[in-house]
What does this fold into?
Amino acid sequence: MQRGTFQLMKSVNKSIILNKIRSTEPISRAQIAKETKLTPPTVSSIVKELIEQGIVIESNLGVSQGGRKPTMLHINNDAFYVIGVDAGPESIGCILADLSGKIIERTASRINTPITNDQFMAIIKENIHKIIDAPSTNKDKIMGVGVGMHGVVDVETGTSLVAPNLNLTNIPLKDELEAEFNLIVRVENDARTMALGESWFGGHDDVDSMVAVNLGHGVGAGFVYKGKLYHGAQDLAGELGHMTIDINGEVCECGNRGCLQTFATGAAIVERARKDIKDLPDNITGEEIYHRAQRGDDAYINVLHNTGVIIGVGLTNLIHLINPGRIVLGGGVTKSAKFILPAIKQTIDQRALTPEAKRTEVSVTRLGDDSTLLGAISLLLVELFAPV
It folds into this structure.
């Protein structure tokens, strides 16, 4: 699908109707009109257009109320595809998915550092070309490309301003990818991308507000309210990892002391284990710490428990600041959820201000390692389905 075609498909009323069908399918035209307050002629006209475009299909599943059975409407999930990219800091992941998030193609490449902007872009382009050139890909159905990028992103221009773990700055992701593929491209910080993916595909339709927290090589978060991301005045909303936990703590990569990120990443857990446990192997990893805790070693269990307490302090601050309906945790550190999550919940219960705040639901993502990739898909879907 060419860039201009996607723009023509978008309108406020179309998005309202599409989202109503997506969230409640199967649904009749009459029910759409009733629930959206749009007039029946408007609904019929737009639905006719959506059927002609192939994004909505009909079925005769309705229950008769005395007359003939109403024709029911569904989203045709196979109508269009989206390419999703999870960019950095250790690898580039790329998928092709339909409108339901079903993954059709997948590819990935490791990132070797040091690396230049051009080399980084070349890896992304190579993976997208592999997806587009796959035998099962219908190029005409591709709506666009969504990119979840490590570090600080200028969402308006689609530029990676700072990718600290890669030591890169000012990567023109949107401009380069749109020029290369002639598709709509949307770029977002990876933690916020993960949050949108959780909101879209993680089964959280029962809450208006949620925060997704990515605990891995860094710590980031995204806040979703009524299906849309909150960015803040300068696109810095969600930098939870740089919340100060200990003003006398270790120096963070940002230059400040005692950021949550200095306690809650995989590398930070290893460093804490080195301080707390004697004769630790030189090549110990966060994964090995988890396995030793699994085998019942109390020293390693305590390291993970203490990590959960510190994360719980950070999340309590988050609850007091924006009071989300739900918090979802993702990233490599959550592989140790068996030991970390109870400590997080206990800390929130001890520290939150009100009984309701103490009961804020905290869970681990159901999307696993695909949460950011599916979030990248949703960067395009939210524009198609969500009212502007």
